């Protein structure tokens, strides 16, 4: 089925304090919740894990989980 909503997921490279757009789009997907995050509202991500997050609370929780597992 074709999707004509004009919505396209961007592909980003997350850097400390910024990100590079590798493939254009209007949103990314939160790595924890699976919810869409509009690029103009994207504020939280991990450069180490290359993941986006929908909120500060989710980012902090994910950081704690990954630190406990020794991934950060």
List keywords for this structure.
alpha+beta, two-stranded antiparallel ribbon, 1 helix, 18% helix, DUF2093, DUF2093 domain-containing protein
Describe the structure.
This is DUF2093 domain-containing protein. Pfam families: DUF2093. InterPro entries: DUF2093. This protein is 18% helix and 32% strand. By secondary structure, the chain is of the alpha+beta class. It has one domain. The strands form 3 sheets. The protein has a two-stranded antiparallel ribbon with strand order 1-2. The protein has a two-stranded antiparallel sheet with strand order 3-4. Strand 5 and strand 6 (51-53) form a beta hairpin. The radius of gyration is 13 Å and the shape is globular. The termini are far apart.
In short:
The protein is α+β, with helices and mostly antiparallel strands and 72 residues long.
Which helices and strands, and how do they pair?
Blueprint: E1 11-15, E2 18-23, E3 27-29, E4 36-38, E5 44-46, E6 51-53, H1 56-68
Antiparallel strand pairs: 1-2, 3-4, 5-6
Give the SSE order as H and E letters. Answer: EEEEEEH
Distance between the termini: 40 Å
- Taking Cα atoms only, what radius of gyration do you get, to the nearest Å? 13 Å
Instruction: Detail the poorly predicted runs.
Output: none
Tell me about the largest β-sheet. Answer: 2 strands, antiparallel
DSSP helix count? Answer: 1
Q: In what range is the share of β-strand residues?
A: 25-35%
Share of residues in helices:
10-25%
Number of beta-strand segments: 6
Mean pLDDT: 93
Q: What is the 3D shape?
A: globular
Strand order of the largest sheet: 1-2
Structural class: alpha+beta
Number of domains: 1
């Amino acid at each position: 089925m074709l999707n004509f909503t004009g919505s396209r997921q961007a592909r980003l490279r997350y850097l400390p304090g910024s990100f590079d757009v590798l493939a254009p789009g209007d949103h990314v997907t939160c790595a924890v919740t699976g919810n869409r995050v509009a690029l103009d509202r994207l504020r939280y991500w991990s450069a180490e894990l290359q993941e986006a997050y929908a909120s500060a609370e989710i980012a902090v929780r994910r950081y704690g989980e990954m630190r406990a597992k020794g991934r950060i």
